[in-house]
Amino acid sequence: MSTLAQRDHAVLWHPYTQMQTAPLAVPIISGEGAWLIAEDGTRYLDGISSWWVNLHGHAHPAIAERVSAQLRTLEHVLFAGFTHPTAVELAEQLLELLPRNQSRVFYSDNGSTAVEVALKMVLQYFHNQGQPQRRRFLCFRDSYHGDTFGAMSVSSRGAFTQPFWPLLFEVEFIDVPVPGREAEVLAQLDAALQHPEVAGFIFEPLLLGTAGMVAYSAEVLDAMVRRCHQRGVLCIADEVMTGFGRTGPLFASSQLQEQPDIMCFSKGLTGGTLAMGLTTCAAPLYEAFLSDDKMKALFHGHSYTANPVACAAALASLELTRAEACTQQRQRIAAAHAAFKQELEDQPGIRAVRHVGTVLAVEYDPGEGTSYFSRLRDAFYQLAFDNHVILRPLGNVVYLLPPYCTTDAELALLYQVLRQMRELVLNFTPAPTLPEYLHD
Length: 440
Ligand SMILES: *Cc1c(COP(=O)(O)O)cnc(C)c1O
What we know:
Elements lengths: L3 H8 L16 E5 L2 E4 L4 E4 L2 H4 L8 H13 L11 H13 L4 E7 L2 H18 L7 E5 L8 H5 L18 E3 L7 H11 L5 E6 L3 E2 L5 E2 L2 H13 L3 E5 L23 E4 L11 E6 H5 L20 H15 L1 H21 L5 E7 L2 E6 L10 H12 L2 E2 L6 E4 L7 H19 L14
Parallel strand pairs: 3-15, 5-6, 5-7, 7-10, 10-11
Antiparallel strand pairs: 1-2, 2-3, 4-12, 8-9, 11-12, 13-14, 14-16
Helix pairs in contact: 3-10, 4-10, 7-8, 11-13, 12-13
Pyridoxal-5'-phosphate binds next to helix 5.
Subunit structure: Homodimer.
GO cellular component, one term: cytoplasm
Cofactor: pyridoxal 5'-phosphate
């Protein structure tokens, strides 16, 4: 008789996991609020909303109710030639909340596909207009937009995508305009915009997640989008992580004066219940696909496009997100983060503390440079886990991205772990590293 974890190990292949050395996966059998409950009864506080997807807590009754009713009414219908009430209602509600220029909703399956659709919209927009030579994208050097090939191409050329580098299409990278570097980056942008082939600029608005929760201002992003628009370059706001209240307001782009031409959503879209992505765009983009010529249509689609059950989950989650109670939860978390930032920053062992809305990131100072694969990262992970807290450090950056239902007492537990990590850093002596050829 083997345990669930052993059976898993015999047949499964986990994402972002070195299967040879990773410990057995932790079997989770239920969830409640910000907690995940393991097979052996241990409760773990989900400090990162299960990879940034959960908004209102696990197994939320209101979402479960709506999903279950939808399942008994209509589970799925193909979305070419047919439609259904939840897809229409969700699109109507979202367009009401998004920046006013957004006028169309295109459904897909996840964040990566939402990005693929956005890239294809830009490329075919210019193709349909007889400017196929405009096909170059600008993106941030440290960006992350997903794991499919187009999304990888517009993402940082990091270690994770190295085996695929030769097959990724070329893009123009510019630095992130972090505080103090704005003018320099605007100059980089101006230089990049000289190339007549530039078609689009894709960015994570205000907060780059995978880069280590790197923040930059709405003012500089406004300036960048304005410069792109002056050159006819289309701007894609990838709100897959920042959408639905993460940065405080419903969308990070709500803080901009300039409006993006295209927006991408997933993660929090269904409150963390079901996989779904969507791409929205402004009217001129959509209109460039209208023609008597069938070949000018957008030939992109997935079998489960606009799945009614996922749309129902999204509607239920959106209702919770729009409620005054949720705004208050987000404000409470943001205020607690701000106070904790004050406590921690400038202390020994801390390089920087960043705080945007419900997201808090602590960059520890391990002395010399460390990478994602460092022992420190694993030590951080283990320390959190031993405290029954789930965090996934990005190298020496540890961030909190809790569900909005996380209580003050639960936040206090998360902060306590971050304090212990500082102690750990201060006492941390890295093992002497072997030269590369001596490994294994
Ligand atoms: C997670 C993420 C994606 C990819 O979404 P998946 O659903 O994992 O494919 C894209 N963009 C951003 C900003 C993300 O954080």
